Amino acid sequence: MALDADRLRVLVEVAHAGSIAAAAARMGFTPSALSQQLAKLEREVGAPLIERGRAGTRLTGPGRVLLEHGERVLGELRAAERAVRAAVGAELA
């Protein structure tokens, strides 16, 4: 299984926003596009990650596990981007 960082970001945003529609608005995508990305991630993992309901979404057990790791992975990617920007800036100075 190879997890995609963009799809992890979708899961994290949905978890934080509480619904696919709210996450889509935050990210500038349609709810349909986010639903498709979540479905792909669920196929990659082999388990449902969220439960969809009228009041929004709720993470499943595997969804909570992946959220915890996804938040760390995305944090590390942001840190790497900042470090590279700083290194490039230092070389140009």
Describe this structure in words.
With 93 residues, the chain is mostly helical. The chain is 73% helix and 9% strand. It is built from 4 helices and 2 strands. A two-stranded antiparallel sheet has the order 1-2. A hairpin with a 2-residue loop joins strand 1 (50-53) and strand 2. Helix 1 (5-17) crosses helix 3 and helix 1 packs across helix 4. It starts with a helix and ends with a helix. The mean pLDDT is 94.
Helicity level: over 70%
Strands of the widest sheet, in order across it, are: 1-2
User: What gap, in angstroms, lies between the N and C termini?
Assistant: 42 Å
Overall 3D form: elongated
Q: What value does the Rg take, in angstroms?
A: 15 Å
Structural class: mainly alpha
List keywords for this structure.
single chain; 93 residues; mainly alpha; two-stranded antiparallel ribbon; 4 helices; 2 strands; 9% strand; elongated
Structure, briefly:
The protein is mainly alpha-helical. 73% of the residues lie in helices and 9% in strands. It has helices at residues 5-17, 20-27, 31-45, 61-92, and strands at residues 50-53, 56-59.
Secondary structure layout plus pairing:
Blueprint (H helix, E strand, L loop, with lengths): L4 H13 L2 H8 L3 H15 L4 E4 L2 E4 L1 H32 L1
Antiparallel strand pairs: 1-2
Helix pairs in contact: 1-2, 1-3, 1-4, 2-3
